[in-house]
DNA sequence: GAGCACTGC
């Protein structure tokens, strides 16, 4: 038997169902607990104990206080039902609406059943976002009366707040668990894995669901809980269903859906209103509705959902102007209004303003003030604002769309799903009964909106994901058991890219280079150029470029100071490439670190630059692990050329050739007509450019662009630039000329005809 | 001569 002290006792006594002596329980609250066979009565007794069963320290007064609050959570009342289901099944789907306490309580329930601390195992609970993983872990550590980072911890990128050997309950981002799976495909450290917020369908959660479904068959000791919102539960139940007679010849197993554990939420009712007719201009209608609420509805704050920064800032200005007018015209019935914008690129300090209280009445006894938060989707999932009573939902959000044919992800304002509309409405009922005004007709809601928002896996470029899956040992990507399978063309595009980058061989097997690439938290193109950069004596520089490309835009351009911002940018610009400018910006930032105001004075985001520093350090550690040298060229004549050459090794598939005159480029092979983005710092329009991204806004643009030489492309990516694979056109002819010229040059050396001399002469002019 | 919905490694 194991060295489990509780079990050891049990074996001596033969049978542990009789109630143990109180003195024993006082010292060993977990006495008599059988792993995975505990009852809610046992657990409740342990919870009431004066001794912490995990630390053996006496419980604090705070513990008792929190416990009293926990007992009021809906999920607490269903503890017995939970243990019964958990004991009997390997996989459970759980539905718990907001306020049910599922995220904090269920993992603790599992701890008492798994007793992971006696077996050196852990329980993992994944979250789609870092802040959630951190804050929930803190809360649960308090509830369990332990230090955060000891028995209960969290693990997110850049921060591992766990103690190996001590931590047995770990909250983590879904991406982190996926990373761990790449090095331990059986996830042997875990006794139970809980995927929380599965309905959000992040890429990582979707891949994890596929892995866990397979893993459940290989590891009978592993338990899995999928926690989600109501609408998705049936889909997950079916996906994780089992055929009882699977494998038995001649038997047609009947699919048994995974059991559902359902816990009610604790929210207030929200009354939903629709418009009679469709609204032609949703922004105008939204502003009108907010003002109507302000004039006619009882006290309570308003949350308005719009799609982006510009729209939000614009709406805030208009609402403020009109609300001030209303108040001045009718001070006895209309109170003051504060309008607060909210979107992710807003500095944290300004984001905090959403938590400010509503303005007070202008005079004692006057009409109350009201706060209006105008937000992107960030307020739908990531941030909750208490005190919201009214929600205005125009029914749109910006959504990512991926077009595998031209390999471009773009953002498109699109109608939201029913699930999303429901989530938005719910934001009105967190503190008291509320109202939701939908700026579309009920008929449109019923018949036009999709049930669910498309999962990320259907909207993304999967190059990264495919590399991860191959690293995970998934052989047949097309037949992998996805919850929702991506378009075959998306997978083909990803495989093609990875093959050109030599991460996969022609049979789709991972190459040693690909295995290394998969270890970097980067897109494959970036990982590739980082790994090859020592060959060009510029790994220090490429590491910086890669870090800068991994963080949000560092340039700040306030609408009122565009000229100044552009001038500041011009001073830092390196004329033959935006990538080189990024390198320069980072180096200048590091040189001026003693000056706290440097970033601000140069219209740069200090936050983004600090992030780049952080990413750079993390990538540097991974490079050390693989003994990839950090080197720089001392020769200033070749310094930037080396960087440009290394860029070609990763991004040779993202090259465009100038055709015709003003700002007209054609992407190589895909033949998309694009223009240099206005933010581009190139001083002329070079014939060949390499770009980091292709964006589709008012017209197709390429952004973050560097001037490259066609000779480099032919030399470092001969397979991709094999001319027999090109369609006829100016690009092919231009490349052919380069090849002819090179051949000609070598012929000149052996003494050649006048044609080549003629060509050389032309080139000089 | 334009923009950055939101996450994550």
Automatic annotation (TrEMBL):
Give the originating organism: Sistotremastrum suecicum HHB10207 ss-3
Tell me which family the UniProt entry assigns to this protein: Belongs to the DEAD box helicase family. DEAH subfamily. DDX15/PRP43 sub-subfamily.
Family matches, as CDD domains: DEXHc_DHX15 (cd17973), SF2_C_RHA (cd18791)
Name of protein: RNA helicase
Task: Show the GO cellular component annotation of the record.
Answer: post-mRNA release spliceosomal complex
Metal-binding found in the keyword field: no
Enzyme Commission (EC) number: 3.6.4.13
Q: Give the lineage.
A: Eukaryota, Fungi, Dikarya, Basidiomycota, Agaricomycotina
- PANTHER family recorded for this chain? ATP-DEPENDENT RNA HELICASE, ATP-DEPENDENT RNA HELICASE DHX15 HOMOLOG
